[in-house]
TrEMBL record:
It comes from the Eukaryota. It comes from Phaseolus coccineus (Scarlet runner bean). One of its GO terms (molecular function) is chromatin binding. This is BAH domain-containing protein. Residues 1-64 are annotated as: Disordered. InterPro entries: BAH_dom, BAH_sf. Residues 45-64 have a biased composition (Basic and acidic residues).
Amino acid sequence: MVNRRRLTRVTVSSDDEDETPRPPCTRKRLRLLEEEEDEYSNNENGEKQLQIKEEVPKSSQRVEDATPIVEDATPVGEPIRFSRKGKGKRSHYESFMFNGIQYTLEDSVLFFPEGGSKKPYAAIIKDITQGSNGHVVVTGQWFYRPEEAKKKGGGNWKLHDTRELFYSFHRDEVPAEAIMHKCVVHFFPTHKQLPKRKDHPGFIVQKVYDNVGKKLWRLGDKVHEDAKQQEIDVLIQKTLQRIGELPHVEFVEIADDVHDQVKGKKA
């Protein structure tokens, strides 16, 4: 799997969350793809017992009469399909609950990244599964921030708007408990005028990033396989249906901003 993103819990500012409300703060156990360190302590009988380290939000520290809430993600409804066999059997669901919030296929969400210096990762939920161990895992289709999308020849692309994300077809499986909260992502062709942030808060996407070839394409470039191109067209239509039609603007090519179209072969 290419470029697996590493996730953990971090503290982020409201700027990183891009005008989307956070769910109520609770004490949660986050299962990572990498196991957390374990520590042992003596119980009242003097016997050693295993304890799992958990991060306690500042808002719940030193509150003696507070009962901490430990919550795992749980599927909602009946499975919509099954995959694999035996011990590896998986049940697939349309939605799940976590921290009192219901998440559904095709929701855009933010994930806690590894390291406090990084901004949250953004993705679209493309699959929701539960294995025999009861853990809920989501498949995220990732967005890239311009500063983290690498160019084929080295370096990164310029940031033209603080709301900007690049769409990609890169997918990874992630523990459901790594989700921060939902977010809003708008998809606009480059010939459309962007709406004001105060009128339509959220991230904006106008380009598609090829994380394997390290190339960048305009959202309207017809260079992708039919299924991928249809996926992009649907996202654009959903945005325009949600916020209405936008004025056209004269397109101005920005040097070294997008990859030149290659005739014939599709990505």
